[in-house]
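Task 17 of the worksheet. Students: predict the tertiary structure of the chain below and write it out as C-alpha coordinates. Keep your answer in the requested format; marks are given for formatting as well as content.
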Amino acid sequence: MARERQVSGWYKWWVVAMLGGAYFFHQADRAIFGVLVPYIQADLSLSELQLGHINTVLFLTIAVVTFVAGFLGDRFDRKRIITGSLIFWSVATMGLGFASSFVAVVMLRSVATGGGESFYGPSAMSLLASHHRETRSLAFSIHQAALYLGLMLSGVLALRVLDVVGTWRRVFVAFGAAGLLLGVAYIFLMRPDTRGDVPSAEGKSEGASLAESFRAFFACPSALLATTGFIAICCVNNTYITWAPKMFHERFGLDGATAGAHAMFYHHLVAFGAILAGGWLTDRFVGRFPRFRLGFQICALALGAPALLLIGRCGTFAAAMAMTAAYGLFRGLFEVNTHASVFDVVPARHRASVVGFMLLLAMGLGALFSGELMGWVFSSFGERAYSVAFALMGGTYALAALLMSVSFFFTFRRDRIS
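Model answer:
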Protein backbone atom coordinates (compact mmCIF):
# COMPACT_ATOMS: atom_id res chain seq x y z
CA MET A 1 0.00 0.00 0.00
CA ALA A 2 3.03 2.29 -0.12
CA ARG A 3 2.02 3.83 -3.38
CA GLU A 4 -1.49 4.57 -2.11
CA ARG A 5 -0.02 6.67 0.70
CA GLN A 6 2.12 8.59 -1.80
CA VAL A 7 -0.78 9.50 -4.08
CA SER A 8 -2.15 12.60 -2.40
CA GLY A 9 -2.92 16.24 -2.94
CA TRP A 10 -4.73 17.59 -5.92
CA TYR A 11 -4.25 14.74 -8.38
CA LYS A 12 -6.25 12.12 -6.50
CA TRP A 13 -9.23 14.51 -6.55
CA TRP A 14 -8.55 15.33 -10.19
CA VAL A 15 -8.96 11.59 -10.86
CA VAL A 16 -12.37 11.73 -9.12
CA ALA A 17 -13.39 14.72 -11.26
CA MET A 18 -12.29 13.09 -14.53
CA LEU A 19 -13.96 9.78 -13.76
CA GLY A 20 -17.06 11.64 -12.60
CA GLY A 21 -17.25 13.34 -16.00
CA ALA A 22 -16.93 10.00 -17.76
CA TYR A 23 -19.57 8.43 -15.50
CA PHE A 24 -21.97 11.29 -16.23
CA PHE A 25 -21.85 10.47 -19.94
CA HIS A 26 -21.94 6.75 -19.12
CA GLN A 27 -25.37 7.22 -17.54
CA ALA A 28 -26.58 10.06 -19.75
CA ASP A 29 -25.95 8.10 -22.94
CA ARG A 30 -27.92 5.21 -21.47
CA ALA A 31 -30.76 7.35 -20.10
CA ILE A 32 -31.44 9.52 -23.16
CA PHE A 33 -32.53 6.45 -25.07
CA GLY A 34 -35.53 6.10 -22.74
CA VAL A 35 -36.36 9.78 -23.12
CA LEU A 36 -36.28 9.53 -26.93
CA VAL A 37 -38.01 6.14 -27.25
CA PRO A 38 -41.32 7.64 -28.51
CA TYR A 39 -39.51 9.40 -31.36
CA ILE A 40 -37.34 6.37 -32.20
CA GLN A 41 -40.30 3.99 -32.08
CA ALA A 42 -42.40 6.16 -34.38
CA ASP A 43 -39.57 6.79 -36.84
CA LEU A 44 -38.41 3.16 -37.13
CA SER A 45 -41.85 1.53 -36.59
CA LEU A 46 -40.62 -0.56 -33.65
CA SER A 47 -43.06 -2.73 -31.71
CA GLU A 48 -43.27 -2.98 -27.93
CA LEU A 49 -41.81 -6.46 -28.19
CA GLN A 50 -38.83 -5.17 -30.14
CA LEU A 51 -38.22 -2.47 -27.52
CA GLY A 52 -38.20 -5.22 -24.90
CA HIS A 53 -35.65 -7.18 -26.94
CA ILE A 54 -33.39 -4.12 -27.10
CA ASN A 55 -33.30 -3.92 -23.29
CA THR A 56 -32.85 -7.68 -22.87
CA VAL A 57 -29.82 -7.75 -25.16
CA LEU A 58 -28.44 -4.66 -23.40
CA PHE A 59 -28.57 -6.25 -19.93
CA LEU A 60 -27.15 -9.55 -21.15
CA THR A 61 -24.32 -7.74 -22.92
CA ILE A 62 -23.47 -5.76 -19.80
CA ALA A 63 -23.49 -8.88 -17.61
CA VAL A 64 -21.20 -10.88 -19.89
CA VAL A 65 -18.82 -8.14 -21.05
CA THR A 66 -18.35 -6.69 -17.54
CA PHE A 67 -17.07 -10.09 -16.40
CA VAL A 68 -14.40 -9.97 -19.13
CA ALA A 69 -13.69 -6.28 -18.46
CA GLY A 70 -13.00 -6.99 -14.80
CA PHE A 71 -10.43 -9.65 -15.64
CA LEU A 72 -8.66 -7.32 -18.09
CA GLY A 73 -8.81 -4.37 -15.68
CA ASP A 74 -6.58 -6.20 -13.20
CA ARG A 75 -3.99 -7.03 -15.84
CA PHE A 76 -3.74 -4.11 -18.29
CA ASP A 77 -3.38 -0.33 -18.19
CA ARG A 78 -6.54 1.01 -16.55
CA LYS A 79 -6.11 4.48 -18.07
CA ARG A 80 -6.18 3.00 -21.58
CA ILE A 81 -9.18 0.84 -20.76
CA ILE A 82 -11.12 3.79 -19.31
CA THR A 83 -10.32 6.24 -22.12
CA GLY A 84 -10.77 3.56 -24.81
CA SER A 85 -14.13 2.59 -23.32
CA LEU A 86 -15.33 6.22 -23.23
CA ILE A 87 -14.26 6.83 -26.83
CA PHE A 88 -15.77 3.56 -28.07
CA TRP A 89 -19.21 3.97 -26.49
CA SER A 90 -19.33 7.63 -27.56
CA VAL A 91 -18.67 6.68 -31.19
CA ALA A 92 -21.36 3.98 -30.90
CA THR A 93 -23.78 6.59 -29.48
CA MET A 94 -23.05 8.83 -32.46
CA GLY A 95 -23.65 5.88 -34.77
CA LEU A 96 -27.08 5.32 -33.22
CA GLY A 97 -28.09 8.61 -34.77
CA PHE A 98 -27.74 6.92 -38.19
CA ALA A 99 -29.62 3.69 -37.33
CA SER A 100 -32.34 2.81 -39.82
CA SER A 101 -33.64 -0.55 -38.55
CA PHE A 102 -34.32 -2.64 -35.46
CA VAL A 103 -31.17 -4.71 -36.02
CA ALA A 104 -29.05 -1.56 -36.30
CA VAL A 105 -30.46 -0.24 -33.00
CA VAL A 106 -29.72 -3.55 -31.26
CA MET A 107 -26.15 -3.65 -32.55
CA LEU A 108 -25.37 0.01 -31.85
CA ARG A 109 -27.36 0.52 -28.66
CA SER A 110 -27.40 -2.86 -26.90
CA VAL A 111 -24.17 -4.46 -28.11
CA ALA A 112 -21.75 -1.65 -29.01
CA THR A 113 -22.79 1.04 -26.50
CA GLY A 114 -23.61 -1.46 -23.74
CA GLY A 115 -20.42 -3.42 -24.36
CA GLY A 116 -18.26 -0.31 -24.48
CA GLU A 117 -19.75 1.04 -21.26
CA SER A 118 -19.15 -2.30 -19.54
CA PHE A 119 -15.37 -1.85 -19.75
CA TYR A 120 -15.53 1.38 -17.74
CA GLY A 121 -16.78 0.31 -14.29
CA PRO A 122 -14.24 -2.32 -13.16
CA SER A 123 -11.16 -0.29 -14.12
CA ALA A 124 -12.63 2.98 -12.84
CA MET A 125 -13.50 1.56 -9.41
CA SER A 126 -10.10 -0.07 -9.12
CA LEU A 127 -8.31 3.15 -10.12
CA LEU A 128 -10.32 5.21 -7.63
CA ALA A 129 -9.45 2.79 -4.84
CA SER A 130 -5.76 3.01 -5.79
CA HIS A 131 -5.73 6.78 -5.31
CA HIS A 132 -7.91 6.92 -2.18
CA ARG A 133 -7.53 5.03 1.06
CA GLU A 134 -8.52 7.24 3.99
CA THR A 135 -10.85 9.20 1.68
CA ARG A 136 -12.19 6.19 -0.23
CA SER A 137 -15.87 6.47 0.72
CA LEU A 138 -15.99 10.16 -0.14
CA ALA A 139 -14.26 9.56 -3.48
CA PHE A 140 -16.70 6.76 -4.36
CA SER A 141 -19.67 8.84 -3.25
CA ILE A 142 -18.69 11.79 -5.47
CA HIS A 143 -18.18 9.41 -8.38
CA GLN A 144 -21.57 7.79 -7.74
CA ALA A 145 -23.18 11.23 -7.51
CA ALA A 146 -22.22 11.73 -11.16
CA LEU A 147 -24.53 8.80 -11.96
CA TYR A 148 -27.45 10.62 -10.32
CA LEU A 149 -26.62 13.82 -12.18
CA GLY A 150 -26.59 11.87 -15.42
CA LEU A 151 -30.00 10.37 -14.67
CA MET A 152 -31.51 13.64 -13.46
CA LEU A 153 -30.18 15.95 -16.15
CA SER A 154 -30.03 13.73 -19.22
CA GLY A 155 -33.75 13.99 -19.90
CA VAL A 156 -33.78 17.77 -19.61
CA LEU A 157 -30.64 18.09 -21.72
CA ALA A 158 -31.91 15.65 -24.35
CA LEU A 159 -35.18 17.54 -24.78
CA ARG A 160 -33.37 20.90 -24.91
CA VAL A 161 -30.97 19.60 -27.55
CA LEU A 162 -33.93 18.12 -29.42
CA ASP A 163 -35.57 21.55 -29.53
CA VAL A 164 -32.39 22.98 -31.03
CA VAL A 165 -31.36 20.27 -33.51
CA GLY A 166 -34.86 19.09 -34.45
CA THR A 167 -34.45 15.29 -34.64
CA TRP A 168 -33.67 12.47 -32.20
CA ARG A 169 -30.83 11.39 -34.46
CA ARG A 170 -28.88 14.59 -33.94
CA VAL A 171 -29.33 14.32 -30.17
CA PHE A 172 -27.38 11.05 -30.17
CA VAL A 173 -24.74 12.58 -32.44
CA ALA A 174 -24.37 15.57 -30.11
CA PHE A 175 -24.08 13.48 -26.92
CA GLY A 176 -21.70 11.05 -28.56
CA ALA A 177 -19.49 13.83 -29.90
CA ALA A 178 -19.24 15.42 -26.44
CA GLY A 179 -18.20 12.09 -24.91
CA LEU A 180 -15.69 11.51 -27.72
CA LEU A 181 -14.01 14.88 -27.10
CA LEU A 182 -13.86 14.13 -23.37
CA GLY A 183 -12.25 10.74 -24.00
CA VAL A 184 -9.59 12.24 -26.27
CA ALA A 185 -8.86 14.95 -23.69
CA TYR A 186 -8.42 12.34 -20.95
CA ILE A 187 -5.66 10.65 -22.95
CA PHE A 188 -3.54 13.73 -22.25
CA LEU A 189 -4.96 14.74 -18.85
CA MET A 190 -4.69 11.39 -17.03
CA ARG A 191 -1.32 10.20 -15.77
CA PRO A 192 -0.05 6.75 -16.80
CA ASP A 193 -1.35 3.87 -14.71
CA THR A 194 1.60 2.95 -12.48
CA ARG A 195 -0.18 0.07 -10.72
CA GLY A 196 1.38 1.26 -7.47
CA ASP A 197 -1.31 -0.49 -5.45
CA VAL A 198 -0.37 -3.90 -6.84
CA PRO A 199 3.43 -4.13 -6.47
CA SER A 200 5.49 -7.10 -7.52
CA ALA A 201 9.03 -7.95 -6.54
CA GLU A 202 10.32 -6.01 -9.54
CA GLY A 203 8.11 -3.01 -8.82
CA LYS A 204 5.82 -3.71 -11.78
CA SER A 205 2.24 -4.84 -12.10
CA GLU A 206 1.64 -8.44 -11.15
CA GLY A 207 -1.50 -9.85 -12.70
CA ALA A 208 -3.37 -12.64 -10.98
CA SER A 209 -4.85 -15.59 -12.82
CA LEU A 210 -8.60 -15.78 -13.36
CA ALA A 211 -8.74 -18.72 -10.95
CA GLU A 212 -7.03 -16.65 -8.24
CA SER A 213 -9.44 -13.74 -8.74
CA PHE A 214 -12.36 -16.17 -8.75
CA ARG A 215 -11.26 -17.65 -5.41
CA ALA A 216 -10.58 -14.21 -3.91
CA PHE A 217 -14.25 -13.34 -4.43
CA PHE A 218 -16.27 -16.56 -4.35
CA ALA A 219 -14.27 -18.15 -1.51
CA CYS A 220 -14.63 -15.04 0.67
CA PRO A 221 -17.92 -15.15 2.64
CA SER A 222 -17.76 -11.46 3.53
CA ALA A 223 -17.38 -10.43 -0.13
CA LEU A 224 -20.36 -12.55 -1.17
CA LEU A 225 -22.51 -11.32 1.72
CA ALA A 226 -21.67 -7.69 0.93
CA THR A 227 -22.61 -8.33 -2.70
CA THR A 228 -26.12 -9.43 -1.69
CA GLY A 229 -26.82 -5.81 -0.84
CA PHE A 230 -25.64 -4.67 -4.25
CA ILE A 231 -27.83 -7.32 -5.89
CA ALA A 232 -30.82 -6.06 -3.90
CA ILE A 233 -30.10 -2.47 -4.95
CA CYS A 234 -29.95 -3.47 -8.64
CA CYS A 235 -33.09 -5.63 -8.49
CA VAL A 236 -35.12 -2.91 -6.82
CA ASN A 237 -33.72 -0.04 -8.90
CA ASN A 238 -34.43 -1.77 -12.23
CA THR A 239 -37.97 -2.49 -11.07
CA TYR A 240 -38.57 1.02 -9.76
CA ILE A 241 -37.39 2.70 -12.95
CA THR A 242 -39.71 0.51 -15.02
CA TRP A 243 -42.89 0.54 -12.94
CA ALA A 244 -42.95 3.61 -10.67
CA PRO A 245 -43.79 6.14 -13.45
CA LYS A 246 -46.62 3.87 -14.59
CA MET A 247 -47.96 3.64 -11.03
CA PHE A 248 -47.95 7.43 -10.60
CA HIS A 249 -49.74 7.76 -13.94
CA GLU A 250 -52.45 5.20 -13.21
CA ARG A 251 -52.99 5.74 -9.48
CA PHE A 252 -52.86 9.53 -9.29
CA GLY A 253 -54.02 10.53 -12.78
CA LEU A 254 -50.82 12.26 -13.88
CA ASP A 255 -49.87 12.46 -17.54
CA GLY A 256 -46.97 10.27 -18.63
CA ALA A 257 -44.25 12.95 -18.66
CA THR A 258 -45.27 14.41 -15.29
CA ALA A 259 -45.51 10.97 -13.71
CA GLY A 260 -42.03 10.09 -14.91
CA ALA A 261 -40.59 13.38 -13.67
CA HIS A 262 -42.06 12.99 -10.19
CA ALA A 263 -41.02 9.36 -9.89
CA MET A 264 -37.44 9.97 -10.99
CA PHE A 265 -36.24 13.49 -10.31
CA TYR A 266 -36.95 13.90 -6.59
CA HIS A 267 -35.91 10.35 -5.78
CA HIS A 268 -32.51 10.86 -7.40
CA LEU A 269 -32.17 14.38 -6.00
CA VAL A 270 -32.48 13.09 -2.43
CA ALA A 271 -30.17 10.16 -3.21
CA PHE A 272 -27.62 12.64 -4.63
CA GLY A 273 -27.50 14.56 -1.36
CA ALA A 274 -27.44 11.39 0.72
CA ILE A 275 -24.52 9.85 -1.08
CA LEU A 276 -22.34 12.94 -0.67
CA ALA A 277 -23.16 13.27 3.03
CA GLY A 278 -22.75 9.53 3.58
CA GLY A 279 -19.29 9.46 2.01
CA TRP A 280 -18.05 12.22 4.29
CA LEU A 281 -19.61 10.55 7.35
CA THR A 282 -18.18 7.11 6.57
CA ASP A 283 -14.63 8.37 6.18
CA ARG A 284 -14.87 10.08 9.60
CA PHE A 285 -15.68 6.86 11.44
CA VAL A 286 -14.44 3.87 9.47
CA GLY A 287 -10.82 4.36 10.58
CA ARG A 288 -11.80 3.94 14.24
CA PHE A 289 -14.62 1.44 13.64
CA PRO A 290 -13.69 -0.84 10.70
CA ARG A 291 -17.18 -2.39 10.60
CA PHE A 292 -18.85 1.04 10.38
CA ARG A 293 -19.04 0.87 6.58
CA LEU A 294 -20.83 -2.47 6.68
CA GLY A 295 -23.15 -1.48 9.52
CA PHE A 296 -24.04 1.75 7.70
CA GLN A 297 -25.16 -0.26 4.67
CA ILE A 298 -27.17 -2.71 6.77
CA CYS A 299 -29.05 0.16 8.44
CA ALA A 300 -29.75 1.78 5.06
CA LEU A 301 -31.29 -1.44 3.71
CA ALA A 302 -33.29 -2.08 6.88
CA LEU A 303 -34.73 1.45 6.86
CA GLY A 304 -35.30 1.45 3.11
CA ALA A 305 -37.42 -1.73 3.25
CA PRO A 306 -40.51 -0.16 4.91
CA ALA A 307 -40.23 2.90 2.65
CA LEU A 308 -40.50 0.62 -0.39
CA LEU A 309 -43.40 -1.30 1.14
CA LEU A 310 -45.32 1.93 1.76
CA ILE A 311 -44.79 3.30 -1.76
CA GLY A 312 -47.12 0.59 -3.05
CA ARG A 313 -49.69 1.21 -0.31
CA CYS A 314 -49.90 5.01 -0.18
CA GLY A 315 -53.33 6.38 -0.99
CA THR A 316 -52.32 9.99 -1.61
CA PHE A 317 -49.85 11.57 -3.99
CA ALA A 318 -48.07 13.47 -1.19
CA ALA A 319 -47.54 10.32 0.87
CA ALA A 320 -46.21 8.42 -2.14
CA MET A 321 -43.79 11.23 -2.94
CA ALA A 322 -42.56 11.25 0.66
CA MET A 323 -41.87 7.51 0.52
CA THR A 324 -40.05 7.73 -2.83
CA ALA A 325 -37.85 10.43 -1.29
CA ALA A 326 -37.21 8.19 1.74
CA TYR A 327 -36.31 5.33 -0.58
CA GLY A 328 -33.89 7.65 -2.39
CA LEU A 329 -32.33 8.69 0.92
CA PHE A 330 -31.58 5.13 2.04
CA ARG A 331 -30.54 4.01 -1.42
CA GLY A 332 -27.99 6.83 -1.54
CA LEU A 333 -26.65 6.01 1.92
CA PHE A 334 -26.13 2.38 0.89
CA GLU A 335 -24.43 3.17 -2.42
CA VAL A 336 -21.77 5.26 -0.68
CA ASN A 337 -19.99 1.99 0.13
CA THR A 338 -21.17 -0.43 -2.56
CA HIS A 339 -17.65 -1.25 -3.75
CA ALA A 340 -15.64 -0.01 -0.80
CA SER A 341 -17.20 -2.61 1.53
CA VAL A 342 -16.14 -5.42 -0.80
CA PHE A 343 -12.68 -3.92 -1.31
CA ASP A 344 -12.22 -4.17 2.47
CA VAL A 345 -12.08 -7.96 2.18
CA VAL A 346 -10.40 -8.69 -1.19
CA PRO A 347 -6.77 -8.02 -2.20
CA ALA A 348 -6.09 -4.92 -4.29
CA ARG A 349 -4.91 -6.83 -7.35
CA HIS A 350 -8.34 -8.46 -7.72
CA ARG A 351 -10.45 -5.29 -7.47
CA ALA A 352 -11.42 -4.91 -11.14
CA SER A 353 -12.21 -8.62 -11.44
CA VAL A 354 -14.35 -8.43 -8.31
CA VAL A 355 -16.36 -5.52 -9.73
CA GLY A 356 -16.92 -7.65 -12.83
CA PHE A 357 -18.16 -10.56 -10.71
CA MET A 358 -20.46 -8.26 -8.72
CA LEU A 359 -22.01 -6.76 -11.84
CA LEU A 360 -22.40 -10.17 -13.48
CA LEU A 361 -24.43 -11.41 -10.50
CA ALA A 362 -26.37 -8.19 -9.97
CA MET A 363 -27.29 -7.52 -13.61
CA GLY A 364 -28.19 -11.16 -14.25
CA LEU A 365 -30.40 -11.55 -11.17
CA GLY A 366 -31.70 -8.00 -11.58
CA ALA A 367 -32.93 -8.78 -15.07
CA LEU A 368 -34.79 -11.86 -13.79
CA PHE A 369 -36.29 -9.94 -10.84
CA SER A 370 -37.40 -6.84 -12.71
CA GLY A 371 -38.35 -8.71 -15.88
CA GLU A 372 -39.65 -12.22 -15.30
CA LEU A 373 -40.80 -11.98 -11.67
CA MET A 374 -42.41 -8.56 -12.01
CA GLY A 375 -43.95 -9.51 -15.34
CA TRP A 376 -45.66 -12.40 -13.53
CA VAL A 377 -46.76 -10.13 -10.66
CA PHE A 378 -48.35 -7.54 -12.93
CA SER A 379 -50.09 -10.17 -15.03
CA SER A 380 -51.44 -12.10 -12.01
CA PHE A 381 -52.51 -9.70 -9.27
CA GLY A 382 -54.56 -7.07 -11.08
CA GLU A 383 -55.24 -4.00 -8.92
CA ARG A 384 -53.07 -5.42 -6.13
CA ALA A 385 -50.02 -5.71 -8.38
CA TYR A 386 -48.32 -2.49 -7.24
CA SER A 387 -48.74 -3.38 -3.56
CA VAL A 388 -47.35 -6.86 -4.16
CA ALA A 389 -44.48 -5.58 -6.31
CA PHE A 390 -43.31 -2.98 -3.80
CA ALA A 391 -43.72 -5.47 -0.95
CA LEU A 392 -41.37 -7.83 -2.79
CA MET A 393 -38.94 -4.97 -3.31
CA GLY A 394 -39.02 -4.12 0.39
CA GLY A 395 -38.61 -7.80 1.25
CA THR A 396 -35.55 -7.99 -0.98
CA TYR A 397 -33.97 -5.11 0.95
CA ALA A 398 -34.80 -6.77 4.28
CA LEU A 399 -33.33 -10.12 3.18
CA ALA A 400 -30.11 -8.46 2.03
CA ALA A 401 -29.83 -6.63 5.37
CA LEU A 402 -30.11 -9.96 7.21
CA LEU A 403 -27.48 -11.61 5.01
CA MET A 404 -25.06 -8.71 5.39
CA SER A 405 -25.57 -8.89 9.16
CA VAL A 406 -24.03 -12.36 9.07
CA SER A 407 -20.83 -10.76 7.80
CA PHE A 408 -21.03 -7.96 10.36
CA PHE A 409 -21.26 -10.34 13.32
CA PHE A 410 -19.37 -13.44 12.17
CA THR A 411 -17.05 -13.16 9.14
CA PHE A 412 -15.87 -9.59 8.55
CA ARG A 413 -13.20 -9.47 11.24
CA ARG A 414 -11.61 -12.66 9.89
CA ASP A 415 -11.78 -11.64 6.20
CA ARG A 416 -10.85 -7.98 6.52
CA ILE A 417 -7.60 -6.93 4.85
CA SER A 418 -5.82 -4.52 7.18
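Marker's comment: Residues 10-44 form the longest helix (35 residues). Residues 1-6, 198-205 have pLDDT under 50 and may be disordered.
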